[in-house]
Amino acid sequence: MFSPFKKKKSSLEQEHSREDLGISGDLEETQNEAVESVYSTNSETNEETLGSFFNNKGHMDKSTLDLVIAVEQMVKAKQHVELNYKEMQDRLNQANGQNDRMNKDLRNLGKVIEDREKSIMELERRLSDNNLKVDQMMEDYRELHTTLSGEIEQLKGVIELERQNYAGLLQKHNETTADKTKRINELEEKNVRLEAELNQMKQRSDALRQEKEHLLNIVNDFTNRLTSPYASNTGANEGA
Fold first, then answer.
1. For residues 97 and 104, what is the distance between their CA atoms, to the nearest angstrom?
2. What's the pTM value of the predicted model, to 2 decimals?
């Protein structure tokens, strides 16, 4: 007698568990079928009739009482199902509202992700361009480094040659300076010697000049003495 009710109650509990998992459409349809199977039409009239019928339990036999109790349990189960249905409907509405908000947030998040992806693509493009520029700069640097290395080696060779030439010129300059210094010293010594000889010659010339003057004076005196008597005689003859 109680097995159909238990089977139907078990089916309703399974539907409740399915609704908790998110299958709201199947739950609502199953609940409607359960309610319709218990009371197909005019539920308020049936409940009033059953209420007056339940109040007369003392005049029923055992089989009828068991049937009445079973029906009473089915009514309570139906009321419980309706209450659960309302609760589930409220929860469903809340879930739908939350779902709408989540969908809106999801769309906004999708837009944000799309914008971020565009930004990332732009950054990747810039990074790629910068990498190309860096690669080109590295290639130019390597070429410049190779060219400058060759030029540096050539300049090192030129510098070494010029250093050798400078060392040779410095040695020649030192030798020339030494020869010039030696020559100057020799000329200074010769100049000193010549100056000494010139002084000696001046002294000798002065001595000779003085001696010549002395001799010239002697000669003049002698000449004057020789010519004086002759001049006197010549004057006397001219007077006679």
1. 10
2. 0.34
